[in-house]
Each structure stands twice: as C-alpha cells, then as structure tokens.
Amino acid sequence: MRMRAEHTTPGSTGSPWAIVAAVLAGCWTVAVTVLAQTGGWAVDQVVLIGGLDRLVPLWPVVCLFTVLLIAAAALPLALVPRSSTVRVTGRLWLAGALVLGVLGLLRTIPPVHHEAYLAALAVVAVLLTVVTTRLPSHVLGPGRHGGMPEHTAGGPRDDPGARATEQGGRPDGHPSVVTLLAVAAGLALLLPWVWLGALGGLVETVLAGLGAAAVGALAAALLGARYWARFEVGEPSRPARLVLVGGLVSGVVLLLVGAGVGHSGAQLPLLVTLPPVGFVLAALRAVARRPAGAGGPAPTVWLVGLGVFGPLAFTDPEEVSLLLVGTRDVPFWVAAATGAGLAVAVVLAIGYGLLLARRSARAPSRVLAAASALTLLVTVGLVGTTVGQPGLHGERLFVLLREQADLSGVSGGPGRAGRDARAGEVYRRLVDTADRTQTELRRDLRRARLPHTPYYLVNAIEVEGGPAVRAWLSRRPEVARVLVSQRLRPLPMPADSATGSAPPPSGPPWNITMLGADRVWSELGVTGAGVTVGSSDSGVDGRHPTLTQGFRGGDDSWFDPWNGTRAPTDRSGHGTHTVGSAVGRDGIGVAPGAQWVGCVNLDRNLGNPAAYLDCLQFMLAPFPPGGDPFRQGRPARAPEILTNSWGCPPIEGCDPRALRPATAALEAAGILVVAAAGNTGPFCGSVQDPPAPYPDVLTVGAVDDRRRVTAFSSRGPTATGAAKPDLVAPGKDVVSAMPGGGYAVLDGTSMATPQVAGVVALMWSANPELVGDLDRTRRILAETADPVETDAASRDQTDECGGAANIAGAGLVNAYAAVSAARN
C-alpha cells in the first residue's frame, strides 16, 4: 500500500499542538532574551558602581546561556513538527539566537573604545549576512527545492520586473514603492532620537551608520523572500495572516538581532522598538506582492537600519548608566526616546497593517510614497537643527607629555607668606615647562585644525579627535600616553535643580558634636577666620543663607568651565552640601568663620581628567572670568585647603597616574588636598580612583553616629600597597545645605571629607604659622585622632585588608584635640 505523505500543504500551519508549541517557544525566547540583556546590563552597572574591575567574561557567558536556553525551545520546533511553516519558524529563531550570541561577544571590547566596537559590529554583521545568504534554501524557507513553485503571487521568477523586485527597485532603476515606504517608516523611528539624543564624533557617527546598515542587511538576509514565501504560497487572498503571523515571527527575530547590537546599554532601547517593526515589514511584504509594489531586501535594510541607527548613534552607551539616574540626565532621555520610538513603531505597525495589507488595497502610488519619505526626511533635518542638539559631541583625547615640571627644592618661610611664595614658584615652573615642551605639539595641532586646550598643572593637552588622531599623537616622542577623555553629550533641557526637604538644624548636628567642633567655637574661640577652603564639585549655591556670607568674592573666586556661570550656582546639590559641611554657618559647618571659593568640575556626575584638572589648576592660581590660566593666574589668591569629594575612575578616562602630577604640585605649593576615599566598600583595596590613592592627599573615610566605619567606606591598601584612608569622619546621615535654601541628609565619604577640611581650617586659624606646613598638620591630625569602634564583621575584615589602618586610618578626627595641639 502507498505511504501517506509526510509533508503538509505549503503555507499551512499544521496541527494545533504545533501552533501551541510555537507560541510557547516564542514567549520563552522573548522572556529569556529580555531578562538576559537587562540582567547583564544590571551586573555591569553594579560592578561599575562598586568600583570593581570590569567583568570581561560577563557577556560571553550571558550570550552562551542565552543561545542554549533559546535553542532548547527552538531546536525541537526546527526539527520535529510536520508543518514546514513551524519548522522554518524554529530555524529562524535559532538563527536569530546564534546571531545574538556572535554579536554579543563584541561587548568584550572595552566601552571606552567605542569606535573599534562599531567597526567590528559592521564587519561581523556583514560576514553573518554572507553566511546567511549562502545557507541552503530549505533552511530558512522552502526555496526552489522545498515544495515551492517556480513563481510567487507577484509573477514569474524570470520576469525582469520580478528580478528588479528582488533587488529592491523597479526595472527603470528607481526606488520601489515599498522601499520608499520603508524609508519613511525608518525616518519616523529615527525622529525621537534626533530630537532627544545627540551625535558623538564624526568617526563614531560614520561607523554607527555603517554598523546600522550592516545590521539592516543581516535582518534582510534572515527575513528574505524565502522566509516570507512560507506565509504566501497557496493563500494569496489572505494578507492578514501574512501580517499577523509573519509579523509575530519576524518580530521575535528582530528582538534577537537587536539584543546583540550595541555596547551594554545601547541594546536596551532596541529590545522595545524593533519587535513591532516585524509587523511593518509584513505589511510591506503584502504590498510587494502586488503589481507595481516591488520589494526585495532594500526595504528591510532601510527600515531596520534606520531603526538601529537611532540608539546606536544618538546616545553613548557609557552614559546609559545608573550613575546618572535620579536626575533628568541621559538615562531619562533615552527612556523618553525609547517610549516615543515604541509609540511610533506601534502606530506604523497598525497603520501599515490596516492600510496596506487589505485584500482590496492597491499599492500606493510612487509619488505618494516618495512624498512621504521626503517629508519625513525634511522633518528629521529640521528637528535635528532646531529643537535637537545639532553638531558632533564626541569624546576627546587627554594627551600626557613625558616631561613634567621639576618641583624639587621649592621652599618658603612659615605661615601664609611662605605658602604664597611657594605657590608662586610652583606656578612659574609649571607654566615654563608646559610652554617649552608643548610648543611644537600645539603648532602641529593648529596646522591640523584640531581644537585643543593646554594645561600646566599636569603637563597635558586635551584634543578633539578620534582613533586616527590618537594613533598619531601616541607616536610622537614628547607624548607619554593618550587617554580617552569622556565627554557627556548635551541634553534637550537642563536637569532640574536638587532641593532639600530636611528641616534646618536647631543646633549643631550630631556630626559636629562628635568632632568637638562646637567646643572649639565656644571654648577656644576659633571658627576658621582667615582661612579659605576651595571646593571642586558640582558647584555651590552662593545664595544659601548659611553660605552667602562665607563666599570670598572678587573676580577670581568662582569658575564654571561646564556652564560658564559668573556667580556660584549648583544644580545637583552635592557641592552645596559639601561646602556647607566645611564652612556653613548656623551650626552645620565645622569652620563657620572660614571663607570659600568654588569651581564646577562635575556638573552631571560623570567627568573626565580635563574637567578635574580645570578646577585643580584654578585652585593653584585663580584667574578672572575668561582669563588665560597660563598668563593671568594669581597663586597668591590660592585657597589654603581643597576639599574634593570626587574620584576619576577608568570609565571617565583616568588611569591611576593621570592626576598624580597635579597633587604633587599642590603639595609643593603648600596647599592641602583633602579627598574622599570613595563609596565602594566594604571591599579591600577599593581606594582606587584618583586622587584618593595618592600619598600627598589626605584621604578620608566615613563613620556613622556610633563611631563605626560604614559599610560603603572604601578600604585600602592602594595598588602600590600604601595604607589608606588616612582618617575617618562622620559620613552617614549628615545634614547640610542644599540649593534653594533647603537642607538634606546625605551619606558618603563625600560628606566626611569637607569636615576634615574644616578641622584643618580651624587648626590653621588657631595657629597661622601652620599654614602650608602639611607634614606637621598631618602629624597632629593623626596623633589626636580617636579610635573607632568596630563590630565583629569589621574586626574580621581587618586582617583581610592588611590591618586597621586600611579601614579607618589613624582614626576619627578630633577637632578639639587637633586645634588644641595646633595652638601649642
């Protein structure tokens, strides 16, 4: 007897059980992909915030498990069901998972080398496209030998018009209706990113375009005519099935492809915006089957390519970070653009599906399709040049020269006069060295028309340029090394200013009394008068009632290289809080009689070595607004003490030695640099980010109101084996000033650091002969410090970190004892 045929009718879906299995496999694939991608990004962020070394194997491991988990569901679909449609669906999802796995491996490239990543993405996507197009016809679709007839509903294969269709155009060489409609849809997807995002550098943007085009070509190879034919053969009168079923299947494929695109963070918007594009592609395919419709791979390349180009080019993945969450910064606007992109994609899916996929619908005229594409192109251009952020905003290069100034033998007498003499001599030597060694390099940069900013506190130049410029600079004999200087891209509108909701203190808060600062005021009559503290931070609200009287004033007491403000301002509140703890009136500051000067080095919580150097350089030799730091610096106006509640990690472009010459120069000038240890505890060896590990910096950890070292306070030893922190101070639940006249309670070694700066201000106010005598000052602080209490966990950790000095330093600073000793 004859055996029953083992195949189903082309185009049929098979048994209900096969359909249920396909639905479950699709849901499983989506869940695994979304959870793996968001989970991998979250791990990246935890590692970053925790100050740990980057986990290079993270994404290879995530990709491997993602592919295995998806394959567990897709492979049975690809092999078992009697329905060829279900089998092709399983094979396509399996291919998409493999694409995700291969592209995801590129995330081992460090994020700081974004151009290299984009170039690799373009190359690998092209290779995957070639491999996909050369797969046998029956793998992703029936093809010529898979039960398909030699023609489709649109016409014979050997028809010249059909061949033009496969190439994405018309016989006359002009773009097809479907291609023009795809371009219009892609531009609509791009519009939110042009409005709310900002481009990087020129090379970065070009490579992003090439990478997006390559990803579009890869999607076209996966979702080619062989795939769509499975939903068309035998049922030319049911375009709704093509749109609904074909759109669902292709949407999962696009989810998998998008999940592999971009460094960690850039792929998150694509998880949301690309899947609905599958329905748009299905609707366009329905049009392509009609006379004059034409199709081929070009519509998919344009639509997916433009959809990928938005998040790939108009946002920096390093800025999609929890470090910027909490304000209306890049993550907020990326989320807004993603939401707008999702809305656009859904509208396109519904609109194209209803208007283009009806049985009675005819292909739109080419004139109408061209007009739609042109209108959207003009709209994108107008938005980008008006309400958008026009221009290129790429990273810069921080070029460190080999020769640094020789500051040996700098001397001066005791007290402020001696300090001023030392500062003047240090300033002269630094400027002379920079002028002499930078002359030829600056001349070549001018000839190449490369914008640049020279520095002298560290003999360095910040240059606008990409990988080619970096390679050229690295080969120059006077250059020691070239770092990537992170530059945040501009926002559609400034972030809202932070305000405080805590009530003003009715008397000295607990941290002031723990230090004994209130006793210094009342019993010793010392408030810090005659001493100036310099703050390099997010800024200072100079109109706050507790701070306005302490501002030194003049034309050289405020510098804002971020926003160019001429009066002390602060949007984030961090700098206002720290200055308040150092010199604020009304009981919140340790040295309420001291004055302060300020500089903005971290307006948006991600900086770079040049931004930090801008302020440190200003602190050594203040200059008037718009002045030349090399020629108009006033070292005699330098503040005596600097409070620095910031660190420069590798993500911002710093290496461990980047700012070392700066703190050495300030030490030679007799200016005390006080810096936060960091909030990456309780890990041992977590005092890592400059300037905290440097030996000439007074590094401060944090304790709570029970004199216990907080869990977040960073521990030593440093990478060189030195013990850090040097001291600890109250850093948990500290109340201080906030912009707008309010108050807030904050935690961190950032809060502890200005209190130590305030204690030194009290010491130097009590004994002006100590001004500039950094060794004696450090010795007094260490000898008068109080022991800190430790719980069992901290005692167990002492041995792990190499001793108690790497957890609490010399102990808790004691203002009363230190000022008393300074007087004697």
From TrEMBL:
Keywords: Hydrolase, Membrane, Protease, Serine protease, Transmembrane, Transmembrane helix. It comes from the Bacteria. Residues 528-790 form the Peptidase S8/S53 domain. Residues 141-173 are annotated as: Disordered. SUPFAM superfamilies: Subtilisin-like. The chain crosses the membrane at residues 58-80, 92-110, 116-135, 177-195, 207-229, 241-262, 268-287, 294-312, 332-355, 367-387. The keyword Hydrolase applies. Signal peptide: none annotated. Pfam families: Peptidase_S8. The active site is at D537, H574, S750. PANTHER family: CELL WALL-ASSOCIATED PROTEASE (PTHR43399:SF4), SUBTILISIN-RELATED (PTHR43399). Belongs to the peptidase S8 family. This is Peptidase S8/S53 domain-containing protein. It comes from Micromonospora lutea.
